[in-house]
Amino acid sequence: MRYLPGEPHQLPRGRNSLGNYQPEHFLFTVEQGVATLTLNRPERKNPLTFDSYAELRDLFRALAYADDVKTVVITGAGENFCSGGDVHDIIGPLTKLDMPGLLAFTRMTGDLVKAMRACPQPIVSAIDGICAGAGAIVAMASDIRYGTARSKTAFLFTRVGLAGCDMGACALLPRLIGQGRASELLFSGRSLGGEEAERWGFLNRLCAPEAVLADAQAFALQLAQGPTFAHGITKKMLQQEWNMGVDEAIEAEAQAQAICMATNDFHRAYNAFVAKEKPAFEGN
């Protein structure tokens, strides 16, 4: 039911459906508004390649315009999340690139994180087994992380002679676990076990290995059935307010909340409360 006057406006070519999207380098399904993205090279612990980086970046950019996807779950096939950049398909070729080529690569990988943070859908990672290097970055760039006690998260860049400041790690990781703990992981490259990761706040919840994906999907479905326009505003504010002073943030939230008060979902919630019913949100 609509409570506000006016018709929903759709910009020409401004929306699209991703329900039938068939990627080349991973698996992707959409059910009840929940997209499940599966990194699917289990024989190699699901490493990323030049092509999969680019395809993931383009997908998350497209999600900003997808009207059939309300939340996203990222997982890995088999018993591992992601082992990072493929040693043979990425690391080896990088040793042969000139500086402009290297910068093009590092900017592309950073664009994946930018796209994940910019897409309005909440992203839930279901993490089991190895979650290393770029895989740890993908988990870090997600909004929610469900893991297992046997999961091992490691920011391995220093192990291969590189700095820990990769794909936004020095900006995002301290926000999750604090400056000191982030410094330890980024300097040492050591693995963070699942129970320690939960204590440190990197993982939101520990699950049984056989249940972690289903638990993440259940939480994502709960979010998908909520006020998804408002969820997108929450994600936007969580991202932007790190660059604001307190007064600026309070004003930004005043404007954001006023926008949400002008949605049908806000009116649906009020009318459902009056009728002592559960609101049926529609994301507008």
Topology order in helix (H) and strand (E) letters: EEHEHHEEHEEHHEHEHHHH
Number of helices: 11
Return the structural class.
Answer: alpha/beta
Main sheet characteristics? 6 strands, mixed
Low-confidence stretches: none
Q: Report Rg.
A: 20 Å
- Trace the largest sheet across and list its strands: 1-2-3-4-6-9
Distance between the termini: 11 Å
Strand content: 5-15%
Percent of residues in helical segments?
Answer: 40-55%
Silhouette = globular
Number of strands: 9
Mean pLDDT: 94
Structure, described:
The structure is a single chain. This protein has 284 residues and is α/β, with parallel strands linked by helices. 45% of the residues lie in helices and 13% in strands. The protein has 11 helices and 9 strands. The protein has helices at 50-63, 87-94, 99-118, 134-141, 169-177, 179-188, 194-200, 212-224, 228-240, 246-261, 264-274, and strands spanning 27-31, 34-39, 71-76, 123-127, 130-132, 144-148, 152-154, 192-193, 205-207. The strands form 2 sheets. Strands 1-2-3-4-6-9 form a 6-stranded mixed sheet, sandwiched between helices. Strands 5-7-8 form a 3-stranded mixed sheet. The termini are close together. The model has no long low-confidence stretch (mean pLDDT 94).
Quick overview:
This protein is of the alpha/beta class and 284 residues long.
Features:
284 residues; alpha/beta; 11 helices
Give me the secondary-structure topology.
Blueprint: E1 27-31, E2 34-39, H1 50-63, E3 71-76, H2 87-94, H3 99-118, E4 123-127, E5 130-132, H4 134-141, E6 144-148, E7 152-154, H5 169-177, H6 179-188, E8 192-193, H7 194-200, E9 205-207, H8 212-224, H9 228-240, H10 246-261, H11 264-274
